[in-house]
Amino acid sequence: MKRSLPFVVRQAQLMARTDSSLKKFLYESLKKISSFSDEAEKLKWIHSQVDILITQSSNESKCQKGCHHCCYHPIQLSHIEINNIKEKYLISNPDRLKVQKANIDKDDGLNSSLEYKDRACVYLNNTGTCSIYEDRPLICRLTHVQSNPEYCHWENKDRPIEHLPVTKAALLVGAFYMGHSEIDFIPNFL
Ligand code: SF4
Q: Per-residue pLDDT tens for 88-132?
């Protein structure tokens, strides 16, 4: 299903409209992405590039090892990412997936009517770690905050979350998504 792009990506695309260096970066990214004939190689490349760009600004990130508040928010990804994950990994919590799938008709994959424990990503381990870390979705890689990490907890959703500006990485993800229009929430793909 075609959904609107994640907020951080749309924001970066908006900035690129008026910033010539970002526009140039977007153009070069699109050119590079279209040069891949192998989807797996393309995904590998985009993962590495996004990680490099994020690392460059990660000293300003307040995200802490062990924190997984953002894993309770709905995660959007493209069909190429989910296919790669499905090929390599089992779902960490099949029972949670059942609950989320049964709920899809009610809230379209957003999990907003679920109890907090059932909102967690189906790839989140009981120990609070990501079971698909190496291949985690692009949106998970982009998510870093400059605000108090506690504000990311669902129960603090009225507190202001300040995202780390990751404009180039988000533009790169947007460029990748342009060729992969099928974007949806994780349970809708499983
Ligand atoms: S894929 Fe991993 S990092 Fe992303 S929400 Fe799920 S558990 Fe968290």
A: 999 989 999 999 988 876 666 666 778 888 999 999 999 999 999
Specify the residue with its C-alpha closest to ligand 1, atom 5.
Answer: 71
Q: Ligand 1 pocket test: pick from 123, 134, 152 the residue with the most ligand atoms within 8 Å of its Cβ.
A: 123
Tell me the pTM.
0.89
User: Could you give the 3-state DSSP secondary structure of residue 185?
Assistant: strand
Angle between helices 20-34 and 167-178 (to 10 degrees): 40
How large is the angle between the packed helices 7-18 and 167-178, nearest 10 degrees?
A: 100
**Closest-CA residue to 7 (of 176, 119, 160, 174):** 174
CA of 36 to the centre of ligand 1 (A): 26
